[in-house]
Design goal:
The chain is of the alpha+beta class. It is built from ten helices and ten strands. It has two domains: about 15-115, Phosphorylase Kinase, domain 1 (2-Layer Sandwich), CATH 3.30.200; about 120-305, Aminoglycoside phosphotransferase (APH), C-terminal lobe (Aminoglycoside 3'-phosphotransferase, Chain: A, domain 2, Alpha-Beta Complex). The chain has a five-stranded antiparallel β-sheet, sandwiched between helices. Helix 4 (about 130-145) packs parallel to helix 8 (about 250-260), helix 6 packs across helix 9 and helix 9 (about 265-280) packs antiparallel against helix 10 (about 285-305).
Amino acid sequence: MNAQPPPGVPVANDDVADRIDAALVRRLVAEQFPQWAHLPVRPVEVDGWDNRTFHLGAEMTARLPSGTGYALQVAKEQRWLPMLGRQLPVPIPAPLGHGRPGAGYPYPWSVYRWIDGQTARAERIDDLTRFATDLAGFLRALRGIDATNGPAAGPHSAWRGGPLSTYDAETRAAIETHRDRLPADVVTGIWQAALDATWAGPTVWFHGDVAESNLLVRDGRLAAVIDFGCCGVGDPACDTVIAWTLLYGPSRAAFRSALGLDDATWARGRGWALWKALITLDDRDPAKAGQARHVLGEILAEHSVAH
């Protein structure tokens, strides 16, 4: 199944995405930031889909949205990341330049300070339980920052921080599509429990995409949190998905305990993890499809223990 996002959720513009390369970045930098025009430009080793990122010299990156919806995130990050970064316990991206459309590229874009580190794979983490508590500490600090006038959940955040019901139709369709591959009634029950666990807490800051690819490690420990494109203020349950994608056993329990999560928030977080797993079961990337199967297995195993 090739899942289509609900109305208002960002998608990549293939015509633009295919034209984003190092040569384009060099032209944009030369036009708009001539003081950096002499610096070499090369793609980063691990790139994303929402944005294309390039090294700009040794200490900066250029980050270009791949679609109109993702371009909504640029002004948000430029405005809020400096404020957030001053109050968080590990580094996050620091904007150094706010680019504008040019050189045939239609969207605003950003220059950030480079943060050194490797993406958070289990084999790169010395102590997963300590990592889980460090990450929970980061998220507690994020949630403790004044959310006044922060960007409410919406298309810019792909509705992270908003109601899970945004993805209800898509999730139920995915369950039907894969009915022969999973216990559909059990999965439907887990999803319905997530929908029923309504959010009644205060509006707080959330990251929106706490995934292994957005967590950097150095010397086996959490070193930075990157890619705040889906950040905003609202329900922070979406930030718990990492509990099923990377954590397990004692580390998952430590993460939940350190965050002080109630049953309703945990259920909504599980719902976010379930939605993403279901819509990527048939992803053309074998790694993503394999991850989806893993997450579904973790969710079903947890449900089995609880019942």
